[in-house]
Write a structure and sequence with these properties.
Structural class: mainly alpha
Number of helices: 3
Largest sheet: none
Number of strands: 0
Radius of gyration: 23 Å
């Protein structure tokens, strides 16, 4: 009886590890998505002086915020 319990415990530990890694990956993707959304909103709400400091026009800011992924989120901070 105890051998069966030990054998079951040994097979569930790797499975729990994979589940935890999966949740960690999912959490990282969610945080990346939230960071991306925050950067897009900041870019859309940027005033003309900030856009001039970055070196892009309002049309380019709108295009970058609405189409595709932002290549670098640090550039807009």
């Amino acid at each position: 009886m105890s051998v069966t319990i030990i054998a079951t415990f040994r097979t569930t530990r790797p499975r729990l590890h994979r589940i935890r890694k999966g949740f960690a990956l999912l959490r990282e993707r969610f945080l990346d998505w939230r960071r991306d959304v925050r950067a897009r909103r900041e870019l859309l709400a940027a005033d003309p002086r900030l856009l001039a400091d970055i070196g892009i026009s309002r049309a380019e800011a709108n295009f970058r915020a609405l189409n595709g992924r932002l290549e670098s989120l640090d550039r807009f901070d």
